[in-house]
């Protein structure tokens, strides 16, 4: 299984916000530059996560985004189910497959997908944004602030 770019970006944004080191919200432009993500794509991801209540998005001159939930209360599996669309691993109807009525593969793949999400539910945003990863993110924040000031 491979995650969509949408989910990949969403997880990076959440991890970045989980280690925010300042009072002001983080701008979409900052996140875009930090991760090399196109601004327009990032706006879509941020909008979807704001609708879920995971982040606060504020418009205007002093706007930006900040985490709206405790990192320890946000299971990664739940995030992925929503960002990925909780769809099946295979699209039997879309292909008009002749095997669909007697196929074991669809169920086996769904079982594997469910196992993946269950495994990801054992980790929270705090887990994946902690330790060395968290230290690297804090360093990214500080470097950005230095570059912005200088």
From TrEMBL:
Keywords carried by this UniProt record: DNA-binding
Family annotation (InterPro entries): Tscrpt_reg_Rrf2 (IPR000944), WH-like_DNA-bd_sf (IPR036388), WH_DNA-bd_sf (IPR036390)
Pfam families, per the entry: Rrf2 (PF02082)
Molecular function terms from GO: DNA binding; DNA-binding transcription factor activity
Record SUPFAM superfamilies: Winged helix' DNA-binding domain (SSF46785)
GO cellular component: cytosol
Protein name per Swiss-Prot or TrEMBL: Rrf2 family transcriptional regulator
Organism: Pusillimonas minor
Lineage start: Bacteria, Pseudomonadati, Pseudomonadota, Betaproteobacteria, Burkholderiales
């Amino acid at each position: 299984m491979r995650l969509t770019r949408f989910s990949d970006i969403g997880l990076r944004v959440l991890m970045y916000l989980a280690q925010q080191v300042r009072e002001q919200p983080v701008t979409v432009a900052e996140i875009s530059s930090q991760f090399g993500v196109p601004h327009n794509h990032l706006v879509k991801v941020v909008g979807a996560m704001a609708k879920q209540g995971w982040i606060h998005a504020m418009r205007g001159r002093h706007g930006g985004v900040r985490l709206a939930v405790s990192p320890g209360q946000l299971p990664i599996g739940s995030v992925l189910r929503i960002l990925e669309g909780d769809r099946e691993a295979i699209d039997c109807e879309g292909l008009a497959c002749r095997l669909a009525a007697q196929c074991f593969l669809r169920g086996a793949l769904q079982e594997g997908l469910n196992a993946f999400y269950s495994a990801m539910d054992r980790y929270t945003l705090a887990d994946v944004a902690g330790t060395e990863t968290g230290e690297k993110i804090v360093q990214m924040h500080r470097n950005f602030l230095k570059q912005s000031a200088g």
